[in-house]
Amino acid sequence: MSRHLFLLPVLMAMATPALAGPREDTMAGISRCASLPDDRAFLDCIYGAAQPMRTRLGLPAAPVAQQRLVPPAYAATAPVSVPPARAMARVSKDTTSTLGNVLGSNTSPGWLEAYTFDGHGLFTVTLSNGEIWRQDPSDPARAHWNGRASDYGVKLAKDAGGRSGQLFVRGDDPLYRVIKLR
User: Fold this and answer.
1) What is the rounded (10 degree) CA torsion for 158, 163, 165, 171?
2) Residue 107 and residue 165: Cα distance in Å, rounded?
3) Could you give the CA distance from residue 149 to residue 83 in angstroms, rounded to a whole number?
4) Among residues 168, 163, 156, which one has the least CA distance to residue 180?
5) Cα–Cα dist 135/167, whole Å
6) Residue 38, burial from CB neighbour count under 10 angstroms (0-12, 13-18, 19+)
7) pLDDT in tens, 69-126
8) Taking the model in full, what pTM does it have?
9) Range list of H helices, 37-91
10) Domain map (residue ranges) of the chain
11) Is the alpha carbon torsion for 88, 90, 93, 94 positive or negative?
12) SS3 84
């Protein structure tokens, strides 16, 4: 046992959130920006991720919109391995009918084109059909996605007015309450 004690500081460092310093926090934020598939959003995310260094150097803050693109550190914990085209195909007929019962008959399958998290861990997603949805702030569930957006197959059930609904993400347990942005 004593020969493994030298690993304790390494393991503890890996388990703690990024609190090392502005340079390390900036680099960690930039690495999380890699999950954004859109080049413009990726670049804006990098600018937002540099905020700890900007603060350290006394520079003006990056726009809030850029800072909000940086996925939170805890979002980098869940592995994802199902490609989009096969994600919904792998849902069995039993699962699909169960989802239909839970989500209602007004469901549409697809996948995520892009996603971001705000400072509260709430997501905004762009779906494969181009619609943009934000997680309802009253929804207690939190997503922990960290893979390519297109790896996540989804089903969306819109409420009667079409301005809100429930989002099921393949491989994720909760149904998320969402609000349509456009």
Assistant:
1) 90
2) 10
3) 10
4) 163
5) 9
6) middle
7) 888 765 333 433 333 433 333 333 333 434 444 444 456 678 888 999 998 899 999 9
8) 0.45
9) 39-49, 51-57, 64-68, 84-87
10) 2-69, 84-180
11) negative
12) helix
| Residue-wise pLDDT tens digits, 129-138 | 889 999 999 8
* Helix 39-49 and helix 22-33, axial crossing angle in degrees, nearest 10: 170
Round to whole Å and give the CA distance between 106 and 35.
Answer: 30
Quote the tokens at residue 97. Answer: 């009918």
- Say how far apart CA 86 and CA 18 lie, in whole Å: 35
Q: What is the Cα gyration radius of the chain?
A: 19
CA pair distance 127, 114, nearest whole angstrom: 7
Structure tokens at 28: 């960690």
